[in-house]
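Blackboard transcription, Thursday session:
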Amino acid sequence: MTAVATAPTISSSAELGGKYLTFNLDQEEYGVEILKVREIIGMMDITSVPQMPAFIKGVINLRGKVIPVVDLRLKFGLDQAEYNDQTCTIVVDVGAQIGVIVDTVQEVLDIADEQIEPPPPMSGAVDTRFILGMGKVKDDVKILLDIDKVLAVEELGQIGDSPA
Amino acid sequence: MPKLNEAAATNLDALLQAVNSPLDPTDLGRLAQLHTMLQDVVGEFAADSPPAKLGAGAVRLLEALILDEAADAASGMQAIPEAIIALHKAGNDDISACDAALAKVTGAMTGEVPTAANAPAPQPQPVTPPAATAAKSTAFTPEPVPEPRLEAPTPPAPAKAPAPADEAYVAEPLIVDLNEQEHLQGFIDESAEHMDAIEVALLGVEQNPADADQINELFRPFHTIKGIAGFLNLRDINRLTHEVETILDMARKHELKLTAGHIDLIFAAIDVLKDQIGRLAHFLTAPTDSPVPQPVIVDIMARLRKAQRGEVNGGGRSTAAADAPTAAGPAPNPPSAQTAGKADSGAAKEEGGDNAARGVDNSIRVDTRKLDALVDAVGELVIAQTMVNLSERVRVDEKLSRDVSQVTKIVRDIQETALAMRMVPIGSTFQKMRRLVRDVAKKAGKEVDLQINGEETELDKTVVQQISDPLVHMVRNAIDHGLEPPNERESGGKARAGKVRLNAFHQGDSITIQIADDGRGLDRDKLIKKAIERGMISPEDELTDQQAYMLIMGAGFSTAEQITDISGRGVGMDVVRRNIEALRGKIEIQSNKGSGTTFNIRLPLTLAIIDGMLVRLGDQRLIIPTISIEQSLRPSQISSVQRRGEMIKVRGELVPLIQLGQIFGFAERIDPCDALVVIVQAESGRIGVVVEELIGQQQVVIKTLGDRFKSVQGISGAAILGDGRIGLIVEPSGLLKLHTQSNAPLLSDANTPHEKPQPEDPQESIVDMTLETIV
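(Written on the board underneath:)
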């Protein structure tokens, strides 16, 4: 990472280093700050809620709490996958608890500041708002998500007012 | 010395109990409690008698101890119990110990051997050692000594003139210590309760200004607020309450006779006090370093002080209570005899009970979030318990089965207790109405006799809080619109004073709050005429009485011919209705022209739990609140409009059908004749909800869906079902809205064996349609 490369995103790198929970989504690898993660659970019965965009699968009963679950594949416009025994729900705390469905959970990685760089320019179809940075671990690249933004109320509500 | 009345004797016993263990100078709560109790007792002894002096001295010593201003705190801690023991003896006609005890009290106060046995009485005129005067003035002055700014201009004053009354009020910005936020919040919460008590007591005093018990009831909360405000350095609040307290103190010593003017002034002071506390509360929601905004109290302070001086004997409070001229004032109603007589009845028991309650406070303040968390956890426990119950091994093993059912019973009990913890009596909300009734009646020129029943009825705290505003509206309306003016009532053969009754009682699993008046009643024809004028209904509409009365709950409807500043703008009742519906309640109106109107508000016992009908659609289960269900039926005939809207006829009325599965996107349309239709009352009419199966009725704990599902219509929340899965709770009014917005797909020929009814006269077509039925 060179000084030139970091220049455009002043606010990023400095605080980004830390532990990330990594997971897979359609052959890509993502990471989410471990501090946001509450727990990882297997798939549970989901009760769908009407008038919600497809990526909001519904609500689950997490030990007496009713929390929404979001299919991250659908949220990112990827193809829906069959849920199997590898499929996990990561419960994150973004003010409220929300379950995030991912293909498989990998591991917790310590990614240092200098391993993280801002996302390179990409096709306009890629939503870079949600990306904190790109973590380079050995030969792999982990896409570090700003999970607060992904699951913000506006993000989830926007498409939600479609009539039934 | 006259024998003490029972109430005073009980007080003395309680006091003696309270000092049977050594006092701790840091236990301010206990000291404050003693202080309050002692103050009640002092007034019971004849003025200037040794026990009265001793009591007054002990009260001041306690004040000084609390404020850490007593010269010799250690001996003070011993002098107080001694004083109380002496007082107790005096209560039994033995005043021998009083003088010695008083000497100790004074000694502890001043730190020196007292020069005279006569301790400083509440009036400053007795000769007292200078040091005692200083200590006294600090205890009595709203501004404690450590505040030099205010104290500076007036230090010599206390010796000569009644200090608090003459000390000029100087407005100062209020800066609170943010480290004390928690205390301040506690003060605000507590004051709210005291405010309620104050208003109730003040209304009692207004009824019977010479009743010393009532004045004491009123004095106590003021005194507590004053005390805490002093601790927390809330100067204005402290000063204002001090002035009121002074008036009350004079009144209960019969130095001053409370007049209607005094009562009004105290009401005004209460409003200012509420404003002060309200602004402080508001400030604490977003605390900053800047001063807390406070109302200007110069005016009210001046009026209170004028009342203290102007209304009494010209000479002010320095005139001794025992002096002949003063005594002449209250003489016509000999107070002690009267109070004693009265105290013998219910008041005495109340007083005693009150003291007992103060001795052993058996309630604690708990954050409602903690309660909610407990209710949630217990709900989980119940579900987990159900799962255990269903397990195979439990069924096989008899011993295990017995044990499990024992656990089940305990879990039930816990659940009930957890839910009961959120319940509070509605009494305080009703009591608040007393003040309102007084004010509104005065403004509207009516005479009102308010009767309150069912105060002990318990409701969910949230409901109690939220029912307050609607009640205010309805009580106001009952007085302003419902009751006739006194003269009109008289000529109509009724008592001049109109009756307004508030009642609350349990009825099945709901609670009913009743607001009834014996006024002119609702005029059905006038209501209908007005509604037609406003275009709310058409002249052809046939309304039942209930429907006609409910018109007044519609938006923009007002029947008062004259709009007053109390009510009559037609914005009240529809807000009332919406508030009550938000609490999942219902309003019913009964009325007889000429003899009054009764509003029945039916509310669920708790907001946390509802009775619901569990229904199935495909593999989804939903809950329809039982309160809105009218009936369920398997229709034999349905009709459609433009091959889209379906409807059925229920008791002669057309009811639109809503395909629940379809509208929520869970399932395809199902033929209503193969399914069940649940007739549900929505805000703007009845709807028929088509479901596949009724599973059964059950109580469910409501969970909100949270911010992310705010936009969802027709669903009010979720509940966790017996098997741990989630069922969504249907909200009928939202469902109907959703239905009218939706684009129902054309019915295919296969599932529409009906003909289109004639649009000109749908009623007729329906009758024809009966031939086209599927079974």
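Lecturer's comment: Confidence is low (pLDDT under 50) at residues 114-166, 311-359, 561-570, 749-775 of chain B.
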